[in-house]
Amino acid sequence: MPVLTPEIPVIDLVHPLPGFPDHRRFALVQLDDDGILCQLRSLDDPSLRFLVVPPVAFFPDYAPEVDDDVVDDLQITAGDDVIVLLVLNAGDSLGSTTANLLAPVVVNTATRRASQVILDDPDLPIAAPLLA
Questions:
Q1: Is 114 helix (H, G, I), strand (E, B) or coil?
Q2: What would the pLDDT profile of 27-65 be if each residue is shown by its tens digit?
Q3: Domain carrying residue 62
Q4: Which whole-number Å values give the CA distances from 37 to 98, 102, 109, in the listed order?
């Protein structure tokens, strides 16, 4: 299987993650050989980490639409430069782990700018089970 997410040494969040106003610099680190399970690791506080996955691995039809403000903030000029990551809430097993579909992290791999985006779609859950 091809690598789904590139390993990126430094990501600068244009807006901090909710609840973490002092943390804007993260590394995207692959935790498996396929690039499916990754970690956003704070460069300012190594104990602050978020598990993330590309949606295609578990939600192949997921296609979030972001506002023009997000495109401008992240300096997106080409769709091929964008990766979308879902933040996981790890359960005791994969079966009890959920993904936040309402607020993905959008990363411009060309500029290394990122933001967690709250989508304007009330039907998207914040705790979607990874396994159906």
A1: strand
A2: 999 898 887 899 999 998 989 999 999 999 899 999 999
A3: 8-129
A4: 13, 19, 17
Check residue 123 and report its DSSP letter.
T
Tokens, residue 11: 């990501």
Helix, strand, or coil (residue 122) = coil
pTM > 0.70:
yes
Tell me the C-alpha distance between 71 and 26, whole Å: 20
Does 69 map to a domain? yes
**Which residue is it, tokens 């680190």?**
29
Task: Give, in degrees to the nearest 5, the angle at Cα 127 between 3 and 44.
Answer: 60
Report if residue 1 sits inside a domain: no
Residues 6+ apart with CB under 8 A from 65: 119
Which tens digits make up the pLDDT trace of 65-123? 999 999 999 999 998 899 999 999 998 988 899 999 999 999 999 999 999 999 999 89
**Residue 118, token pair as written in the block:** 């709250």
29 part of a folded domain = yes
